């Protein structure tokens, strides 16, 4: 394996899951020999129609189901190992929280399961409630929540331990567009901090927005996998975006392109995606109504690493033999400049 | 510990919200409040308190057993069904801590309910003493025979085993053991017969029992408690307590009906200086009737050992230990099986624990299907298999059966700390500990994320 082992967060090789009936006869082959790897700092998406094996794969990664065959390592250990679980956060597809606990009690309960001390727990609960916008509902029971609110508190509990691997099953399901945007921003923030995110979603636009790589499952098998930019790239075509041109300028540019490439170029006007349009409209409407401007999403400081930076700033210099910090992931490469286009512009 | 406590707190809150548990709690309140006024007893204060202690606490104990088994069964199985347990097992909590947390939550609920039950019973008892105590003699009887913890001493059993051995040897030498009866079974029958003979008093005869009491405070009264069977309703008898040369020897002539329990107050001065007390029964009926004191319930000597309140506390603890064990059984069943199967399984175990005497008698039975074609009933293959089955079942269940502590409390009998410790050791440390390990093993291997 060429990949540096310590950089791999999930390693699945020929992973299988067969559900059996009472007499141990095979009933459903939910996952059929899939192999994939997820690296540190990556946002990896599992896509596929219902019954394609996404949730089963996620449950095996969490140790909730046991593979029928193949190899599965999470954070270089068995997914059922207690040490592995200490570094994983999980948001299930549906709310499996205790309905009779309040938001605060819910976070406190899961914080205790991670053995966080009281002060740290209180601090994180405060930050998380602010982050998900449920400070006003801290004393309300989770059972009274709307689906979107339950999703938010579910997300908060998944992050209470500042996990290295966050597993999100349909993270934006049930959220309004603003909530969706917040969750996606959060995923990007986590990835920037070197956290690994594994998510499954039916909402392809969400996946496209945040995932670095995806795997598309169908009938328990991976049918496509790779970096999302590569998979979606139309080979042999380029697109140039310019400020709006006068008809004269358009005619001249088209003529130049025809002369250079010998084929007829297409001319269209770029469109906003619906989510961006919606968010712009809502923001303008709020400003127009003199309403309070929407607060910028404040990600809990312990998740962004600000706490760590503050600690480092105030702490004495580390000893030479001290363990190194987890290195930040390398910055994502900017898109390569097309040399041909540069030449064309110069002309 | 933090994890166990937080799981316990959530389990407790979950249990309180269960409709069945709430219904059972209301039923418990009804029993505690409604049953005592409905108790008639024998019309005496002593009878009322005895019924209050045995029946009210007995019914309440059954309700609490159901609550603990139900809560135990649902604590894990219902959370697996609703996937709430997914959120716990994906956290770094070892399976044994999950089980212990759940158990602790149920124990807290059981403890609080049991405390309420015993507190109410004690309050009812004190209330009855202030409201109904008109007869001073009745009140004295209550204080001396019920509101007390009296130690029980059985009579000395001298040389019965040797006599049985000798008689067996003689019978074997004579060839008098029937074919098909093993030597061990024959010896058991001989010993039982000897014991029966030793407790039978034919007309015109007397029988003496020796009690080893030891040093006894002079101001503490002694009580002889006995029951007997006889073929007539009015049996005349003469009781003598103390040696014939003791001028404080107590004498009592009685006419009593068979089947009842009788108590005779004996002055402490009747005890010999060496700490022994001989008690003699004379059958003085004019007709030749034999009075039989049941060998399994021979005359017993009772004397003050401790206060009622301390006994009450010990009985509370023994009942709590039993409820803790039942909740551990329910919890383990809920870990092993789905909710309906777990409830069915637990109900069976509870039923088996409550028919311990029947299983014991079946385990002692050699032939279940008698053969009528010969003089001797020879056990067949099926008999042997059934005997083995019941013997194994008895051996498994016997340590888990609880002594009748509520009966002892109502009879003013001392329940020792040793009993409490033994109950706790067997039922909590050993049995529940084994169940915890089994549950942790299963929970580690069970796929809790299976689609429901």
Give a short overview.
Chain A has 347 residues and is an alpha/beta fold. Chain A has helices spanning 54-61, 82-85, 103-113, 118-131, 147-159, 177-192, 204-210, 228-232, 247-261, 274-288, 301-304, 306-314, 339-346; strands spanning 8-20, 26-39, 43-47, 69-74, 88-91, 165-169, 196-200, 213-218, 221-227.
Short key terms for the protein model shown above:
heterodimer; A: 347 residues; alpha/beta; Rossmann fold; six-stranded mixed beta sheet; three-stranded antiparallel beta sheet; 13 helices; 9 strands; 19% strand; globular; disordered C terminus; B: 452 residues; alpha+beta; Jelly Rolls; 2 domains; four-stranded antiparallel beta sheet; 14 helices; 13% strand
Query: And the CATH topology of one domain in chain A?
Result: Rossmann fold
Largest sheet composition of chain B: 4 strands, antiparallel
Q: What is the CATH class name of one domain in chain A?
A: Alpha Beta
Outline of chain A: globular
| CA distance, first residue to last residue of chain A | 47 Å
Main interface by residue count: A-B, 29 and 29 residues
The Cα radius of gyration of chain A reads 24 Å
User: Count the helices of chain A. How many?
Assistant: 13
Strand order of the largest sheet of chain A: 5-6-7-3-8-9
What oligomeric state do the depicted chains represent?
heterodimer
Specify Rg of chain B, calculated over alpha carbons.
27 Å
State the secondary-structure class of chain A: alpha/beta
Average pLDDT confidence of chain B is: 86
- The H-level CATH homologous superfamily of one domain in chain A, spelled out, is P-loop containing nucleotide triphosphate hydrolases
Number of domains of chain B: 2
What structural class do you assign from the helix and strand content of chain B?
alpha+beta
User: In terms of per-residue confidence, which ranges of chain A show pLDDT below 50 for 5 or more consecutive residues?
Assistant: 318-347
Beta-strand content estimate of chain A? 15-25%
Sketch the topology of chain A as an H/E string, one letter per element. Answer: EEEHEHEHHHEHEHEEHHHHHH
* Strand proportion of chain B: 5-15%
């Amino acid at each position: 394996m060429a990949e540096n082992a310590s950089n791999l967060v999930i390693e699945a090789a020929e992973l299988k899951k067969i559900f059996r009936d009472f007499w141990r006869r095979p009933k459903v082959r939910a996952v059929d020999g899939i192999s994939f790897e997820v690296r540190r700092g990556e946002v990896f998406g599992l896509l596929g129609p219902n019954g394609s094996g996404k949730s089963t794969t996620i449950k095996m990664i969490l140790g909730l189901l046991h593979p029928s065959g193949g190899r599965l390592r999470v954070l270089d250990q068995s997914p059922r190992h207690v040490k592995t679980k200490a570094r994983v956060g999980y948001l299930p597809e549906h709310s499996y929280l205790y309905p009779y606990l309040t938001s605060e009690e819910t976070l406190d309960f899961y914080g205790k399961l991670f053995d966080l001390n009281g002060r740290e727990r209180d601090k994180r609960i405060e930050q998380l409630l602010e982050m998900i916008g449920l400070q006003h509902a801290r004393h309300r029971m989770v059972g009274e929540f709307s689906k979107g609110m339950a999703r938010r508190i579910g997300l908060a509990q998944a992050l209470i331990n500042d996990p290295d691997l966050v597993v999100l099953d349909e993270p934006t399901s049930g959220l309004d567009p603003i909530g969706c945007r917040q969750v996606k921003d959060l995923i990007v923030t986590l990835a920037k901090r070197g956290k690994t995110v594994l998510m499954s979603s039916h909402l392809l636009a969400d996946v496209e927005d945040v995932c670095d790589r995806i795997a598309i499952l169908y009938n328990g098998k991976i049918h496509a996998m790779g970096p999302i930019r590569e998979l979606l790239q139309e080979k042999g075509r380029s697109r140039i975006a310019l400020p709006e041109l006068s008809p004269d300028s358009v005619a001249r540019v088209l003529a130049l392109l025809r002369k250079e490439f010998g084929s007829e170029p297409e001319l269209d006007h770029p469109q906003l995606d619906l989510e961006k349009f919606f968010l712009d409209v809502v923001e303008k409407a709020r400003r127009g109504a003199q309403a309070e401007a929407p607060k910028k999403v404040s990600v809990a400081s312990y998740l962004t690493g600000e706490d760590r930076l503050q600690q480092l700033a105030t702490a004495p210099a580390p000893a030479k033999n001290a363990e190194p910090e987890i290195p930040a992931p390398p910055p994502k490469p900017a898109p390569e400049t097309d040399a041909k286009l540069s030449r064309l512009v110069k002309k | 510990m933090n994890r166990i406590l937080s799981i316990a707190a959530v389990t407790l809150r979950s249990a309180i919200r269960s409709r069945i548990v709430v219904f059972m709690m209301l039923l418990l309140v009804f029993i505690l409040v409604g049953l005592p006024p409905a108790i008639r007893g024998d019309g005496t204060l002593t009878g009322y308190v005895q019924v209050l202690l045995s029946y009210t606490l007995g019914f309440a104990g059954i309700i609490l057993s159901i609550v603990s088994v139900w809560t135990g069964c649902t604590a894990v199985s219902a959370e697996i069904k609703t996937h709430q347990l997914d959120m716990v097992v994906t956290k770094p909590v070892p399976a044994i801590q999950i089980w212990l947390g759940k158990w602790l939550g149920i124990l807290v609920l059981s403890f609080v309910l049991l405390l309420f039950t015993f507190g109410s019973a004690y309050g009812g008892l004190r209330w009855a003493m202030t409201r109904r105590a008109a007869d001073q003699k009745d009140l004295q009887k209550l204080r001396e025979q019920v509101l007390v913890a009296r130690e029980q001493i059985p009579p000395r059993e001298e040389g019965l085993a040797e006599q049985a051995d000798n008689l067996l040897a003689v019978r074997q030498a004579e060839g008098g053991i029937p074919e098909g009866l093993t030597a061990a079974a024959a010896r058991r029958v001989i010993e039982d017969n000897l014991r029966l003979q030793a407790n039978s008093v034919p007309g015109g005869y007397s029988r003496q029992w020796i009690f080893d009491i030891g040093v006894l405070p002079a101001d503490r009264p002694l009580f002889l408690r006995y029951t007997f069977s006889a073929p007539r309703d009015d049996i005349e008898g003469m009781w003598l307590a103390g040696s014939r040369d003791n001028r404080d020897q107590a004498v009592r002539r009685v006419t009593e009906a068979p089947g009842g329990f009788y108590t005779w107050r004996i002055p402490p001065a009747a005890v010999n200086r060496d700490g022994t007390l001989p008690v003699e029964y004379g059958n003085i009926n004019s007709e030749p009737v034999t009075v039989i004191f049941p060998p399994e319930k021979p005359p017993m000597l009772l004397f003050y050992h401790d206060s009622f309140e301390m006994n009450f506390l010990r009985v509370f603890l023994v009942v709590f230990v039993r409820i803790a064990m039942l909740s551990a059984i329910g919890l383990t069943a809920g870990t092993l099986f789905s909710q309906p199967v777990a409830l069915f399984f637990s109900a069976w175990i509870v039923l088996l624990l409550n028919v311990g005497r029947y299983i014991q008698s079946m385990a002692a039975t050699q032939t279940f299907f008698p053969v009528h074609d010969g003089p001797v009933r020879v056990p067949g293959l099926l008999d042997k298999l059934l005997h083995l089955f019941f013997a194994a079942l008895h051996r498994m269940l016997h340590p888990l059966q609880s002594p009748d502590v509520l009966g002892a409390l109502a009879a003013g009998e001392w329940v020792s700390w040793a009993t409490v410790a033994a109950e706790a050791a067997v039922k909590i440390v050993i049995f529940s500990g084994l169940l915890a390990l089994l549950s942790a093993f299963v929970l580690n291997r069970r796929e809790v994320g299976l689609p429901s």
